[in-house]
Target: Histidine kinase
Amino acid sequence: MAELLTERAFIGVAATLLVLGLFVVLCRPRKSGSVQDAVLDAVQRLSKAAPGLRGGLTEQAADQASKHLLELLNNVAVGVCDADGRLMSWDGQANDHYEDLSAAIMEVVQHGTRAHVKHENLQCRNRGSCPMRAAVIVPLIVDGQIEGALILVGGVDSRRLIRAADEVATFLQVQLELAKLDEQKQQLVQAEIRALRAQISPHFIYNALNTISALIRSDPEQARELLQDFADFTRYSFRTSGMYATLADELANVERYLTIECARYGDRLSVRFRIAPEVQSVVVPFLVLQPLVENAVRHGIAKKPGGGTVSVFADDNGSEALITIEDDGVGMDAERLQRDLRDAHKTGSHVGVGNINQRMRQIFGDTHALMVDTAPGQGTKITVRVPKFFPGVSIGETPFAVQDAEHTGPQTAIR
Model:
């Protein structure tokens, strides 16, 4: 799925550049100016017309696009309709002819074919002074579905008007396609988060409740505290909104998880934390750390006779936060792990770690894939590099407030 999104995004950008070149040919000055001026003007107009469409075909996006496309093409009018033929935007003159074009518009949105309407075939009360000579209506088709239609009204009936309508429609379709890609990317991320939540549920919740249940009689105070940690852990992990969180929030959730696991494993599990205060506000992908820590406990320490230690470090590394999850457990073959991570979406092996590795690459690029150092009997060390600032990565309103967070400065805790 991720590879498909990347390929389609590349095609979309290539198509945009092609359309831009054709715009320059169609719109360059005939008598004055230069090709360079035409290029700059086209780029400026397109850059103003495009952003709104990245959110889909809305009335606001249509208004923004039609305004700037009219200035670019210098036509009589530019209109945009939705998939039902309803007018979303009309910029320019001859708007009284929209009703005359309604039948042709419905034909276009129903059958997906271009329509060419000549002014001489319309009823017009201002035939001598009407600026319109022809209209071209082109369907806007995205992923095989008709999303709407573009209307270009020209003062001259020419092949240039038809070609301009086709190229403008292609440009709009590219932007709407990119909007679909953005939506699918968001859905993909949400699906990956749901997969992580599903993994938490069977492997952790049952054991946590068993541990708390066993402590109710022997140590009711500890049972009460663990129950509160468990409630906070599940409330955070199963929240329904937000793709990102602060590193402080993620670490607080990791600490809750390890508190419960320490109660379960007793002396077989020790934990170390060392957190630099200056990186706690760094924004990270939601649920990016807990599955890595769970992997260290389940696959590293739990399988080692006598248990071991899980270490969680977060350090300032210039423009990045450097987060390390390390265990001195059983380890595994490094080449096999790399193969499992690469094929996790197919095999299901190490799905939590593979999921996070894929998310890091999708959000920050391949250079921010997880770094794994492991060998049989030598434990496992996973390093996560998160840029302190990255375009499009922000937390907005925090849907979960961390209460009584203990990470207020550098610390080393042994449990």
